[in-house]
Amino acid sequence: MRQLQGMDASFVALETRNSPMHIGSILIYNPATAPGGFVRFKDILAFFDSRKQLSRTIRQRMVRVPFDLDYPYWIEDPDFDLEYHVRHIALPRPGDWRQLCIQAARIFARPLDLTRPPWEFTVVEGLDNIPGVAPGSYAMVTKVHHAAIDGMSGIDLMEALHTLRPDDPAPSQPDDWKPERIPNPIELLGKSYFNAVTNPWKQLEVAAKAAPGLAKAIKGLVVKDFTVSSDMLAPKSRFNRKIGPHRVVEGRSFKLTDIKAIRALAEGAKVNDVFLAIIGGAMRKYLLAKNDLPKKTLTAMAPISVRAGAEKGDMGNQVAAMIAPLGTHIEDPAERLAFVFSQTANSKAMSDAIGARNMTEMSKVSPALFLALGAQLYTRLGLANRGVAPPFTTVVTNVPGPPVPIHFTGARLESMMGLLCLTDGLGLGHVVQSYCDEATIAFTADRELLPDPDFYVKCIEDSF
Fold this sequence. Notes:
Blueprint: E1 2-3, H1 6-13, E2 22-30, H2 41-51, E3 60-63, E4 73-76, H3 82-85, E5 86-90, H4 97-109, E6 119-125, E7 138-145, H5 151-160, H6 185-222, E8 247-255, H7 256-263, H8 271-289, E9 299-305, E10 319-325, H9 333-354, H10 356-363, H11 368-380, E11 394-400, E12 407-408, E13 411-419, E14 428-435, E15 438-446, H12 453-463
Parallel strand pairs: 5-6, 9-11, 11-14
Antiparallel strand pairs: 1-4, 2-7, 2-13, 3-4, 6-7, 8-15, 9-10, 12-13, 14-15
């Protein structure tokens, strides 16, 4: 039995019917490399079953403390049922890309059952009319609660469920998993009382560790190692409103060599700066077409992984954040890239001064009750529609995927496209995900705030 930490618990507190807090992906597999050239659903179940001991996420469920007086706990689910979590559907004819995205959006919009291990994988057959996808291929739409994983631990889960070669044998390590008893409310309240008593000491410890970073940040401001620019404060946009229960998803893949070629337009720019500039250009094109582009640059929250090597495979979130202005006020793409690079360099200098790890550790000792109440009040009072929006316009998370082909049940993974959770005030999010020699820019959006995903994905293509 392990307790969730501050950032993980915040995703539980933010969970509502309209804002399910899970992340995931659309994965497409070619079964030509599998034994016999095809994969049956029972093969998929057997493959999952043979590898479930490689991931802590698969069989752990959440237990909440009464009245949310303390952070929830993870326990080993005594009622785990693999067939509940792995589902199977097929697209109707013609089985094209748009149908797959619509089906994925419907699946992704539905909340997970938090009385079970918080994940579902849906196998989707019938991909018969998608350019570049071989006949007989299938997709898998995944969703895992954000309290359980971040982008990097999600990649660790991918590694646990895939093999390098199509004929790799099942793992030899024994499965010594044991279910746990579900604690009763009195036990949980007793633990919350103990934690309430000890939490002030933990806060002092974290504050002491953070003090050198804060002093370094103040010094950096004085000597102008970095600046606090007004460009880091986002203007109100159409995407920063209360969201509904429906989603749209889409994405496009690009060659990494092309992304690296674009990077040369601004000396010192990183690949991530190129993606930010492309997304900035796409948002500019989209909002200009709607006659709704703010004069001031829109911004993105860019998560920064602080996961240490020893934490590989651990559940939960080990991320800090950086604000990245997107240059939506600049028409010329090369000028926009130079602007984005200068702003991200400034934000990185600030994060380095404070210490990205310190930001994460501070969230772990935030009082649970106030964290939950604050998250719930923001939604219930409709503050997103009253001008109280997040300090950023969108999210752009960059998740490095495997650099070599991987396989699931012998079938080769052909492409991967990331999906994000949304919440009130954040109606559009982007995932940049690399795999082998390509990178995909994908987005998840509220259907009312972005009703034309085919147009926005064209804006991404044009910006590229």
